[in-house]
Structures are given as C-alpha cells and as structure tokens.
Design brief:
Layout (H helix, E strand, L loop, with lengths): L6 H19 L10 H21 L9 E3 L13 E7 L6 E6 L5 E7 L9 E6 L10 E6 L12 E7 L10 E6 L11 H31 L10 E2 L7 E9 L4 E7 L4 E9 L15 E3 L11 E6 L8 E3 L5 E11 L10 E6 L9 H18 L3
Parallel strand pairs: 14-15
Antiparallel strand pairs: 1-2, 2-7, 3-6, 3-8, 4-5, 4-7, 9-10, 10-16, 11-14, 11-17, 12-13, 12-16
Length: 380
C-alpha cells in the first residue's frame, strides 16, 4: 500500500521555491529604489521572522514573547527608541503578564487583529504609566476575563517599550502565562504544520511586497525634500502622529529641516531606507534623534540636517551615503490631539556651507555611547 504524500514537506518545498523566485523579483525595476543586496538580505530577514512567528509561536495556549523589529529583525518603519515584542492571544483565555520596568521609561501594549501589513487593526491599547507602572518597578496584570479586556477579533498583542534616554542599563523584563492553558499543547499534525508553513510563506511575500509598495506610495505623494501632510497612527493607534518626507539629495548636498516642536510626551526624527523600511544602521550611525537628544534653537525650534557627510552640526542625521530615503517626524501622546501639527520647512544646501562646531571625535563618542546602550537594550 502506497503511503499518501505528506503535506508539510510539500509546503516546505513550495516555500523554498517561492523564496528563490522572490529573490529574483526584488532585483527588478519594481524594487529599484533600494540596493539589491539589501533586498535579498531583507528577504532572509523576513523569512526568519515569519517562520518563527507562524510555525513556532502559533499556539495561544503556550504563549512566549517573539522579538522582532530590533537591530537584527527589521521591517515596517520601527521606532529606533522602541523595543518590540509580540505574543499570540485568544480572547477566550486569561493571561498573567508580569515583569519589571527597569530602565524602560514607558511601554504600550496594543491588542491587534493581525500585523499591519496583513490589514490588522488595533482593537485595544494599554499604557504602563496610565496603569500606574513606572521605571524600576515590578508590574503584574491579567489580560482577559476579570482583567484587562481582550476584545473579540484579537489574535495577538504587541508591546512597544520606550527607551528615550539611551542609557546603559537593564531593559524591561516581560513574562506571560496562560492561566487557562490545557494540560497538553496543541498536537502537531502533518496538516497543521503544512498550514503554518503555507501561512508563513504568504506572510514573507506579503510583507516584502507590502512595505516596498507602501514606500513607493509615500514617495509618489509629495515632491522630494518636502513633508507631506501629517497623519495619525496606522490602523487604530490614535496616540501616534507622523509627518513623512522623502529626501533625494545630490552629492555634496544636505537637507536642512527647521520646525516648531509638538507639545507631546515624545517626539523624534528618524531615517529609513526605501524598499525595506528598516532601521537605518543604528549601530554605526546617528540615524535617529528624539526630543531628549536634539539641541533646540534659542527660540525653542529645532533644526535637523540630513546628509551623507558630517557638517559638524549638533542635530545631524547620517544617511550612510544614500542619495534617497525617508525621514519621519513622529510624536506620541500629544497634550492636545486635535491641535495643529508641527509645520516643518525644508531646504537643500551645499554641505560645505554648514560647518558646525562638533569635532569628529565628539561624533564618534556619541555613536559609541548609542551602540553601548543598544547592547544593553537587546542583550537577549
């Protein structure tokens, strides 16, 4: 008697074949706004992320935190001041979340119907400070029945930890336990594993295509070196607001941004490459500055310089030699959510005309201090 073909090995072969095709596709004209090698690396990154999430973090009765969007697994315009962790949830179950804030200044827990690139929506959000949890202190709470509500439609939770001061100190610790877990976890079958592998394949492809198209839409919405109108956080995160500017600079040219600042608990300027929407080299360059790191002008406004060469200016964002990319001005927890957003102005100037007082060794010291903080934040 001939044994029926097994589904999971076939699904794995299909995934590998599709990855090979995708590797060729990202070298084509539709992805011409980013370096081809970066796009191939991006596929590898997305493969690791989504196989881990859909194959190994698939059981909401046995939840463990899944780290993404850090200095290794990057995509989707992550905030350089955040650490991200994700977990499977089931609205019919209860979960105990406990840990210690340590040096984390605040965290935001969002309960979602899926990831953004899968058309997911935030259905509830909870903030540490609003719950009475503060840096250096333990925390514990229950999600689900008799605790914080998990609305119907939620399949996952995402924690954004805020590290605004970039100190070399212990990061937050999070644990999660399902209080209604059955004695045995879900039995792995051929059909179930095949489904998880197929779902991972779709997610890898969708994420790579979605974020590239998203950035192309941003690029097409406004002439280069100008900010598009502000918009609120994507798909339900109303406390977040953003301004996008696609920069396109000639050799020896820099973009100077001058702006008022929002009345908000947090705001920042950050750079991203086109195509992948990853962090722009957090380890070796100053590619992000938040409200505690910038030097303000005497009138309270902020001036930021975006360019490939160091002009000696305090608020320089290093493009890493890229001629094009995305600058995001974001702010969270505004004091008056309906107030007019900041109105930044932009101009391109010869970098040589921007000679500032900072010495190269001072910039190197800043980069070293930032790298040492990241070593602590992502020590796991």
């Amino acid at each position: 008697m001939t044994e029926a073909p097994r589904l999971a090995p076939r699904a794995w072969k299909d995934l590998c074949a599709r990855l090979a095709e995708l590797g060729d596709e990202v070298l084509g004209e539709d992805y011409a706004t980013s370096d081809g090698l970066e796009m191939v690396q991006h596929i590898a990154d997305q493969t690791a992320n989504w196989i881990s999430w859909f194959v190994f973090h698939a059981d909401p009765t046995r939840p463990f935190w899944h780290r993404q969007q850090d200095v290794v697994g990057r995509y989707g315009g992550p905030n350089a001041d955040n650490s991200y962790r994700h977990v499977r949830l089931d609205p019919s179950l209860r979960y105990r979340v406990a840990g210690n804030m340590h040096s984390c200044e605040d965290w935001l827990l969002t309960l979602r119907s899926a990831f953004m690139f899968q058309s997911g929506t935030t259905l509830a959000d909870y903030t540490a400070s609003e719950m009475g949890f503060h840096p250096g202190r333990d925390f514990e709470f229950v999600l689900g029945r008799d605790g914080l509500e998990i609305p119907e439609g939620v399949i996952m939770g995402t924690v954004r930890e805020y590290y605004i001061d970039w100190q070399q100190r212990e990061p937050a610790v999070f644990t999660i336990e399902c209080l209604d877990a059955p004695e045995q976890s879900i039995k792995l079958t051929d059909e179930l594993l095949a489904e998880r592998i197929r779902t991972a394949q779709l997610a890898i492809e969708h994420s790579v295509v979605y974020w590239n198209q998203y950035l192309e839409g941003v690029r097409a919405a406004r002439p280069p070196n100008q900010f598009a109108p502000s918009h609120r956080g994507a798909k339900g995160l109303d406390l977040a607001q953003y301004l996008f500017c696609h920069w396109d600079l000639a050799p020896g040219e820099s973009l100077v941004v001058e702006s008022d600042v929002p009345v908000a608990r947090y705001w920042s300027f950050q750079l991203y490459p086109l195509g992948t929407f990853e962090h722009l080299d957090l380890l070796d360059r100053v590619s992000s500055l938040n409200h505690t790191q910038v030097a303000l002008e005497d009138d309270g406004r902020v001036r930021v310089v975006v360019g490939a060469a160091d002009p000696g200016m305090p608020n320089w964002l290093d493009t890493g030699g890229r001629s094009r990319g995305l600058l995001i001005y974001r702010w969270f927890w505004p004091a008056q959510p309906d107030a007019d957003p900041p109105a930044p102005t932009t101009r391109t100037v010869p970098t040589a005309a921007l000679a500032g007082p900072l010495l190269p060794e001072e910039r190197r010291a800043t980069v070293t201090a930032r790298r040492q903080h990241l070593a602590w934040r992502f020590r796991e």
